[in-house]
Amino acid sequence: MANILVTGGAGYIGSHTCLELLNAGHQVVVLDNLSNSSAESLQRVQALTQKSLHFIEGDIRDGAGLDQLFQQHKIDAVIHFAGLKAVGESQQIPLAYFEHNIAGSISLAQAMQRAGVFKLVFSSSATVYDEANISPLNEEMPTGMPSNNYGYTKLIIEQLLEKLTIADERWSIALLRYFNPVGAHKSGQIGEDPQGIPNNLMPYVTQVAVGRREKLSIFGSDYDTVDGTGVRDYIHVVDLANAHLCALNNRLNAQGCRAWNIGTGNGISVLQVKNTFEQVNGVEIPFELAPRRAGDVATSFADNRRAIAELGWQPQYGLEDMLADSWNWQKQNPNGYR
Ligand code: NAD
Ligand code: UDP
Hints:
With 338 residues, the chain is α/β, with parallel strands linked by helices. It contains eleven helices and 13 strands.
């Protein structure tokens, strides 16, 4: 069992990962500035697991704070979720994205190096792939120039981390390229709680279902896909959380930098998401067909064979579970954690 620092652990994916870490017997320290989350998520994680974790409200850009954390807690490895993630916002305020994501990751790596901690699992994204690649996307395919500043920060951080492992063989770093995380823990006690109008499809659908939004706008119905709407690879957040535990185990006994796709390998269209949500949950989702959203690609889904072969990871949940669990969370928490 290991002592794990989870940056951004109060957030959507972080809270689900903390729960799985505690259930697996690890000791967990969370560092989060709560800029996009609530400490209530961690209270619920502790109630669900009947185990405690240590929460520190702080910022990854604060090197002195990180030094203090590493002095006070013996840490074996870091899972790094902290960062800003709104694509549209990243076009409006790029410097904030460069600072929180890129400078924040450098600050974290510097503090890890000072503390002698060299195992890191980083939250990357499928957005780093070149848009010209044809799905299923595999890890050997070229990365490209992401169309937005958020994606650009993920690409830069991946490259910086890779260079770090080349320069200093003490580092061992996992780059997990997430596809589209959705769903929630079975209990419905923790889930995705975006602030303001959701950018992502799933929280938008559940907020329509619960009556917080009038109707779903489907962005683009003339793509070259099964029904004209965009195709993505939706992955249950609990499967995604477990991928971090597998990556952690892999990195505890390895050196260097390696990327893994975390997706199911199934391409699902927006209309299929909407229709299946209605069938599984027995609620209607009013919708309209709207113009394409700038920067969207028609189709993106994973070749996940590397993660399955090398990490011993296997996704357990299908689309119906994802949609039932998303709705279970939203229904029980119509206003999220507030
Ligand atoms: P989230 O916003 O729920 O979680 C991120 C957490 O980091 C939040 O709790 C926030 O308060 C915290 N945070 C932000 N800046 C910080 C800072 N400077 N110092 C300390 N804490 C800070 O987002 P999420 O969906 O759980 O995503 C987690 C990670 O996964 C992010 O890095 C995100 O970019 C990446 N990712 C997410 C998706 C997705 O669709 N959700 C897809 C690919 C990659
Ligand atoms: N989408 C949509 N309406 C919304 C939000 C998203 O039609 O309100 C579509 C979007 O165009 C894409 C898919 O849903 O085809 C997934 O979008 P999301 O923003 O969730 O993830 P992305 O793949 O863009 O990171």
